[in-house]
Amino acid sequence: MKLGLLFFLILFGLETIMFFFLHSTLVESRVEEELIALQTRGNSHRAILEKHFDENTISHVALMESEANTDVVITNSNKEILGASVDSSLIQRYIKRPITSSIRKGKTIEDNWKKEEYISTVSPIEQDGVLIGHVYMFQDTAWIQSLISRLNKQFLIAGFIAVIFTITIIIFLSKALAKPLIKMKEATSQISSGDFSVSLPKTGDDELGDLARSIQLLAGDLNYLREERNEFLSSISHELRTPLTYIKGYADIVQKRDLSPEERSQYLSIILEETNRLSDMVKNLFDLARIDKNTFDIKKRPIDLKEFMKKIETKFSPAFTEKGMLLSVNCLESITISADASRLEQIIFNLLDNAIKYSSPGDKTTINISRTKKHVIININDTGRGISEEELPFIFNRFYRVDKSRARALGGTGLGLAIVKELVHAHGGTISVCSREGDGTEFEIVFKGETECENNTFG
Question: If one looks up domain 297-457 in CATH, what number appears?
Fold first, then answer.
């Protein structure tokens, strides 16, 4: 209603101003036309009288005007009336008005049609350059006022139609604007109450349409975040409960039962293993929390990948050998990148740890380093069990694990790949995965090429 009222006041004000100026212009133009016509008629009579300035011609001119809606008065040079088509008492005061100058084309002596009974013009009659009389022409203003009155009525009708038309347009326009806005307000109220299943109608490609799509997108994102939060809380409660249950259970056994040294050592080993698992999980959660708060330090230094990968191979080969697997690193040339060495090692470690967990004895994991003009590419390829196509879009989500059984034999918390993704992005790189169930998995990390040494903070 406020929007419609504002539009109405603005449009009504503009229409009123436009009608006022149009009306004034038309009235002034119409009066001017009447005065010009009156002057032209007086000049025509003057032309005749200059040729025949006698009693018969004067009477003939007066007789002609008596049949018209205009009147004529003919005087001599001393303003004595020689002939008239109107009662001289009505026009005597107009004739007595002084004429300051004699203008051949004539002049207007009265144009106040609102207050005077007549509008009037005068044309001089001359013979051989000598003034011998005047032709006064009169137009009854009642006729002009009647004409203006009819014009006013037409303007009132047009104004009324314009107002009705304006109100109709404003009603439809206000509804067209307010209806989607009201729905958007209801949608935002629905979102604020925790219901993200909002649906807004398509309103086109204008600003309202963009706003509706933004609200719809916001609702989808909030719903996704809620689901992520719920899944996160469910996952973390499960992941924390499992090692705590093992620790508590085996601690009770060690404390309450009379165990042999071998059994006690076995149970303490399990407690230590679960404690380490719990410690790793808390550390990973702490790292993710720091990343989310943009307080995760990335201290970049130039790294020679050839030497770096030799150290990686030396450090991780025993773990692969113990499982009956093979680790191969291929970096044929010296390639330098700017990165945080400890964080880069953490990235490689998490990916290699996944390769070990999801591969079998006899499988092979290969690390290939290559570069283009602008990028350095690290490919980690294993011949393990692979990942199904349905699982691929979610493997970087927190607490997501391909193995739904969460078997202890495989270990892990589902946080490793989430941390890898965040660390790669913190270095300004990208990570992608390609896999087929039963045919192995390949992770590809793309970093920018050699850059200047710098200290950065993630975010």
Answer: 3.30.565.10
